[in-house]
Amino acid sequence: MAHPKRKWSKARTSRHRSAWKLEMPGFVECPQCHSKMLRRKVCKNCGYLDGKQVIAIGEEA
After folding, report:
1. How many CB atoms lie under 10 A from the CB of residue 29?
2. Which of 35, 39, 45, 61 has the fewest Cβ atoms nearer than 10 Å?
3. What pLDDT does residue 24 have?
4. Alpha carbons 37 and 26: distance in angstroms, whole number
5. CA–CA distances in Å: residue 31 to residues 18, 36, 40, 58
């Protein structure tokens, strides 16, 4: 079984793990209804993507 040839220092370990950090998802404002939406995704409120209606969202009575 593989094993390390020499010990990693604590500084090297933390530097190695610094790339594991999480990022917040990119939120943008929808140009149609001005609600918050994820980048490059269909707006959940109006159903538009890149100025075109992709999903027909109707009002439920």
Report:
1. 11
2. 61
3. 86
4. 8
5. 36, 10, 13, 19
d(Cα 29, Cα 54) in Å, to the nearest integer? 17
- Three-state secondary structure of 6-45: CCCCHHHHHHHHHHHCCCCCCEEECCCCCCEEECCCCCCC
32 with 43: CB under 8 angstroms?
yes
Where the chain has pLDDT below 50, the residues are: 61
Q: What is the pTM of this model?
A: 0.54
Looking at residue 13, its pLDDT comes to 94
What is the spatial distance between Cα 61 and Cα 22, in angstroms, rounded to a whole number? 40
